[in-house]
Design a protein that fits this description.
388 residues, alpha/beta, five-stranded mixed sheet, four-stranded parallel sheet, 34% helix, globular
């Protein structure tokens, strides 16, 4: 989840996350040698028509999170790859170790550039894939796409970063088509959509003036500067979907950027949410994940709220402070983070949601490599759990 930095230009550096997910029409079961388009048109997230023989294996991927997506729909996702981006922090070091333990081949796969690096046609060709799965908003230039296709490598753009809420289901459907696992992709998309529908029906009844303001600080405590924040797109779409008002949206037009501390203080948000993980341990920021117990994560969350300016926010004074693993953002299992956000932003309305139970179900029904440990915390028990 190389560590992503929160500035507007994704090619320079990345971080973190409204429309409902879209599902490609006509995702019929593919015969092994069927040409895409013989049954239904196949287009990628740039709406480029794809003319390739299915299944299109092996693949290269330019984002480690695509390994998680493949793991949702295939029991051995590493077997589908001839090269990968090696961006361990995007899936967490602990999760990477779990994948290597289950699939040792991952440790020796050729490395291709990740989506925040300069794209390399040579590295992709050296890995000899049938298709290169790349990220919308970065990835190869048109000239590089032409080079790859002329060499017999199809290029497929998907999106789990710029507008993941809108594009995740479509991206997973496309991956399913590519590898001949359409039914598995459809099953996960339905699982996710059913849970999204529960949230959207309740949120529809919330008046605009009852939607709390939310400040989500990405990579909280990563150095002295404040404040990394979502803007339009990315996790900002999720905040809006669950009935919150993202304070970054009014001034950051890209998916992510930076807010001035004075602006944050002036907006004085109702809810403060930090994201973090193991990559912030050396910086003294918010840490969370399998290698940290609840006390350690909560102590680090408290520390980031004690910084100048942040400590004075209404959200902090009222105890409406929460922390989420950055690896849950832009994640193929984003429904877990969505339910957590809903509980935090509207604790009375969504007290019955159980993100941990949702994660447990995903582990049991879908993932080839399950998530273990804790990926979120609260500064203090939520109002929903105390009956307030």
């Amino acid at each position: 989840m190389q560590i992503e930095r929160s500035i507007p230009s994704r090619r320079a550096a990345l971080t973190l996350l409204g429309a409902l997910p879209l599902v490609l029409a006509g995702c019929g079961k593919a015969d092994d040698k069927r040409k895409a388009g013989a049954d239904a048109p196949l287009t990628d997230l740039r709406d480029r028509p794809l003319d390739l023989t299915l299944p299109a294996k092996p693949l290269t991927i330019d984002d480690g999170r695509y390994l998680i997506a493949l793991s949702l729909i295939h029991p051995d996702p590493v077997s589908l790859l001839s090269g990968w981006s090696g961006d361990v922090n995007r899936i967490s070091p602990e999760q990477y170790k779990a994948y290597v333990a289950r699939f040792p081949k991952l440790a020796t796969l050729p490395r291709t550039p990740n989506s925040s690096d300069e794209f390399s046609v040579e590295a992709v060709l050296a890995a000899a894939p049938k298709a290169a799965v790349v990220s919308l908003g970065s990835g190869p230039t048109d000239a590089q796409v032409a080079q790859l296709t002329s060499a017999g490598v199809d290029v497929v753009f998907i999106d789990f970063f710029s507008h993941p809420f809108e594009n995740q289901a479509r991206s997973l459907t496309l991956l399913g088509r590519l590898i001949g696992r359409e039914e598995q992709a459809a099953a996960y998309n339905k699982f996710r959509q059913d849970k999204l529908d529960v949230i959207s029906k309740r949120v529809a009844a919330i008046p605009a003036d009852k939607r709390p303001t939310v400040f989500l600080e990405a990579h909280a405590g990563n150095g002295p500067d404040c404040c990394n924040s979502p803007g339009k797109g990315n996790v900002g779409d999720y905040i809006s979907f669950v009935g919150g008002r993202n304070i970054g949206e009014d001034v950051i037009k890209a998916p992510f950027g930076k807010l001035n501390l004075e602006y944050v203080i002036d907006r004085n948000p109702d809810v403060y949410i930090a994201t973090g993980g193991p990559h912030l341990e050396k910086a003294g920021g918010f840490v969370v994940g399998p290698q940290y117990d609840e006390a350690r994560s909560r102590a680090s969350l408290r520390k980031v709220t004690e910084r100048r300016g942040i400590a004075s926010l209404s959200a902090v004074r009222a105890g409406r402070v929460h922390g989420l693993s950055h690896q849950m953002i832009n994640s193929p299992i984003d429904i877990v983070a969505t339910e957590a956000l809903a509980r935090w932003i509207h604790p009375d309305l969504f007290s019955d949601l159980d993100p941990q139970a949702t994660l447990d179900t995903i582990n049991r029904r879908f993932l080839a490599v399950p998530y273990t440990g804790s990926y979120w915390t609260d500064l203090q028990p939520s109002p929903a759990s105390t009956g307030e």
